Amino acid sequence: MSAPILSVSGLSKRFGGLQALHDISFDVARTEILGVIGPNGAGKTTLFNNLAGLHRPDAGTIMLDGVSLVGLKPHRIAGLGLTKTFQNVALFAESSVLDNVLIGGLLRHGVAEARAFALHCLEQVGLAGIAQKQAGELSFPERARVEVARALATQPKILLLDEVMAALNHAEMEALMALIRRLREGGLTVIVIEHHMKAMLALCDRIIAISFGRKLAEGSPAEIARHPEVVAAYLGRAHAV
Amino acid sequence: MSRALVALALLAAALLPLALESEGYAIHVLTLALLFAALGQAWNIVGGLANQMSLGHAAFFGIGAYAATILQIRFGLSPWLGLVVALALGGLAAALISLPTMRLRGHYFALATLACGEVMRVIANTAAPLTGGPAGISVPFGAEGVWMMRFEGGRPIYWLMLGALVVVTVVFEVIRRGALGYRLRAVRENIAAAEAIGVDTARVKLQAAVISGALTAALGVLYAQFNFFFDPDTVFGVASISVRIALMAIIGGIGTAAGPILGALIVIPLEEFANAALSDRAAGLSQLVYGAVLIAMVLVEPRGLMALRFSWTFRPRRASA
Questions:
Q1: B197, A107: Cβ pair inside 8 Å?
Q2: Phi-psi label, residue B282: left if phi above 0, alpha if psi -120 to 50, beta otherwise
Q3: CA dist., res. B67 & res. B65, Å (int)
Q4: CATH, domain A1-81+157-166+188-241, list 3.40.50.300, 3.40.1350.10, 2.60.40.10, 3.40.630.30
Q5: Which candidate in B59, B165, B314, B321 could, as Cys together with B117 as Cys, close a disulfide (CB 3.0–4.6 Å)?
Q6: How many CB atoms neighbour CB A134 within 10 A?
Q7: Residue A126's closest CA among A198, A57, A176?
Q8: What is the DSSP-derived secondary structure letter of residue B139?
Q9: 3-state secondary structure (DSSP) of residue B132
Q10: How far apart are the first and last CA of chain A?
Q11: pLDDT-derived band of residue A241, with 50, 70 and 90 as boundaries?
């Protein structure tokens, strides 16, 4: 394996009495699609927030292409090529869909170029038709796709998607998975948090399972699906074969 | 609003003083309205685009008025050069105030900025050797001439204020339509999301504050040249300046270029006429009526009079410029 694009080592984060992340380590290879699974409250989103600089970890290192991200502000981290979407969707609700994505494009372009690039990103997620709609008026699945388009507009090297498939129907989910695969072929590295196990097993090259802030297991989808602790902690008895 | 309509309104505004008595009351009120429209527009960069409700803009206004006037008294400096000094000092003061307050939101930001204006008022009252203290300060009389902004009659200073309003409005529009405007909107709507997609939110807020503060200070210089005399309680006043500036945009419609202009053209004449018509009836009656009308306006249309106009014109309320 060549040098990993992202290398996380010994990452810990505590909120008051809650150890949200405990000594998490993993590497992400270039153009890999890595899945992160775990029960609600396991620390998945906290992990993303630490990677993206929205939280500062108490301990550990995060290296993106050899550059340490710990202590950098989120906008610097986005500038270095790591962008995340928000689990609860955090669009600029009073702005149009196009303007939402355009602001992402401003990271690396002027306004005119950013607008053209934003339209391109909206086409990729299949939302070019509603570019002029106000973001606050969209349905949840549409908003999730705008989030993806806005993150893409920042032209990341590595994209963190936090439950963007929640509430999508089967066809929309298939379309988004196809998009993620296409983006990977174009050189993007992706980390995905999703609860939909079938989708995760089909999409990811590798999966990390976390529970109560600790890494339980790491491996190929097939290995994770068989891992006894993962099955017990997350998949439940119904999935145990 | 179409370009033709803006051009027509501008032409009418430029020609209007010719129809008015040169030293008259009407031209005085209109000049004041233009000044406050420009002030509201400068405030709009921070208060409208970033939604940071500054109640401390008197700090910049007074700094401009005092700096240029003191330099004129001591060194005979032209107010035009005073404008340049005011731009620099206003921008600097805005940066110094913005750095510690920019993390604050909503009421906390409003209170912190309000305190900054008050601190300046106290300083100006105390530093009597420099500012003249509570007794105030007068712009020195001299020969008429453009270089010293000393004009015959009320028309030139009216045109000067109109020019200032045009400049500030153009700055506002360029910002609103440009990258900074988009970033400020992102800051206003969701600061965490803005950061996560690469917006340097601290820098963006600082830029907006510096531009707004610099313009406000420059307008303070024009006020001094228009009014000839002022004291700390007037130019650093909470009610007389800080709240009044914010009021122009709030009444007219926040975040739009037309908002502060509309607001000032209604509020300033209203205030003046309430004063003129009612101040001899009973103490405080004019302020009471003025206040009641403002409250009524905000109750009828909290988004400002601009929104009211649009809701009359187009049925769907969302449709706006």
A1: yes
A2: beta
A3: 6
A4: 3.40.50.300
A5: B59
A6: 17
A7: A176
A8: P
A9: coil
A10: 32
A11: very low
Quote the tokens at residue B95: 């940066």
B196–A84 CB contact, under 8 Å: yes
Give buried/exposed letters for A35-49 (b at 16+ CB in 10 A, else e).
bbbbbeebbbbbbbb
Query: Per the structure block, which two tokens stand in for A170?
Result: 């089967």
Residues 6 or more apart whose CB falls under 8 angstroms from that of A211 comprise A38, A39, A42, A229, A233, A234
Tokens of A44: 């998945």
Using the CB atoms, write b or e for A142-156: b if 16+ within 10 Å.
Answer: bbbbbbbbbbbbbbb
Q: Among residues of chain A, what percentage have pLDDT more than 70? A: 96
Q: Give me the interface pTM, i.e. the ipTM.
A: 0.90
**Tokens read off for B186:** 């992102």
57-96 of A, contacting B, C-beta below 8 A: 73-76, 78-79, 83-84, 86, 90-95
Instruction: Dump pLDDT digits (tens) for A150-162.
Output: 999 999 999 999 9
| Residues of chain A contacting B177 with CB distance shorter than 8 Å | 111
Residue A146 to residue A130: CA distance in whole angstroms: 10
Q: How far apart are CA A31 and CA B153, in angstroms?
A: 73
Residue with tokens 């300033």: B268
Asked if the Cβ–Cβ distance from A107 to B194 is below 8 Å, we say no
Do A91 and B193 lie within an 8 Å CB cutoff? yes
Alpha carbons A169 and A141: distance in angstroms, whole number: 8
Domain extent listing, chain A: 1-81+157-166+188-241, 87-155
* Cβ-contact B207, B180 below 8 angstroms: yes
Mean of pLDDT over chain B: 89
For B25, what's the count of Cα atoms within 13 Å in the CB-facing half-sphere? 6
- Show the domains of chain B with their CATH numbers: 3-313 (1.10.3470)
Beta strands A158-162 and A189-193 are parallel
Cα torsion A125, A130, A134, A139: sign: negative
Between A121 and B279, the more confident residue is A121
A105 Cα to chain B: minimum distance (Å):
9
Nearest-Cα distance to chain B for A56, in Å, is 14
The residue assigned the tokens 């707004």 is B212
In this predicted model, what pLDDT tens digit does every residue of B69-86 receive, in sequence order?
Answer: 999 999 999 999 999 999
